[in-house]
Amino acid sequence: MAAGESRLRVVGAQDTAFATGCKLKCKDAGMTQIGIGILGGGYMGKAHAVAMSAVGAVFDTALRPRLEMVCAASPESAERYRAAYGFARSTGDWQALVSDPLVDAIVIATPQDTHRAIAEAAFALGKPVFCEKPLGASLDDSAAMVAAAEDSGAVNMVGFNYIRTPASQFARQLIADGEIGEVTWFRGEHTEDFLADPQTPASWRTSGMANGTMGDLSPHMINGALALMGPITRVIGSYETVHASRPGGAVTNDDHGQMMCRFENGAMGQMYFSRISTGRKMGYAYEISGTKGALRFDQEDQNALWLYRSEGPEATRGFTRILTGPAHPDYAAFCQGPGHGTGYQDQIIIEARDFLRAIETGKAIWPTFRDGHEVNRVIAATLASADAGSWKDISDF
To answer: Do residues 252 and 193 both lie within one domain?
Structure first.
């Protein structure tokens, strides 16, 4: 799956199944089916397969996914995934999946260094692409993927699932509606402890910059900051490797990193990212201060949002814990009961709904490849600022 492998022939938009009008292949009970091909059958490949199997029932989507083909590193592993997840067919050749006429839309859940070649081949055929983050293994890769996507006119979307929780969607609404006034400050983190133990063996996660904390964890919180606060204009950061060697080999990427930033709206910000934060399992968390109130959220308690309003007697003011329920975005489709909660897999199902809706309507739905590239620009500027020891403007990247 290397970027140097041969590309598929370019087919004009008028020859593809996803030209204007989006004519799909078969219909059942008035609902249009769409053949889904997923590249990668591991952690995220399974999550997307489950999401595509469930999304029609959860959201009553007009397009109903058909698990057409799964691709993995070998035909044997692909066949195991096919049997486990319910795909019609399997292959060990990603080009065969992308070019298959029964595969109408592509989900990329493979290592970052394969994203560009797969996406470019799919866009050459006019097929919609959903790609897991980060968008590419480098800033050049993601820029090329944006160009390919926009040149093709095909639907494109990046997998930033955490910002889609009902609580974080509600936080975005509160900020947009001015409920906490003018935002003045943002603090975000994405902290986990899966490599906190220095005796944890070296693996693919400990080599290659794209697999380090700045390439792996920081994109989620940077995307969250952009969604909640708007564009970032300047950054200064630092990063380091705390455990330089592990059983089985040297560590060639970073364990944790931090940054200060300035948002376009004038607000100050800071973010911290770590895979060695002992005790933190899913520390995707943020705090936001405004002139009329404040917000707090922690993914480890993903069904609660804390809201402070600067109103009423001082003696009775305080943060209010809001439990998500049917009154909050995308909650009711999963559960009728307030406070019962949604989970990780539900975030992926919401992504699947958005991807299908974008294909159905032909209209882009956030976050697109360009939004994913913006995250990568912020990361590139942060790394450059760390090397230079000075502030960097995002516009230079």
So the answer is: yes
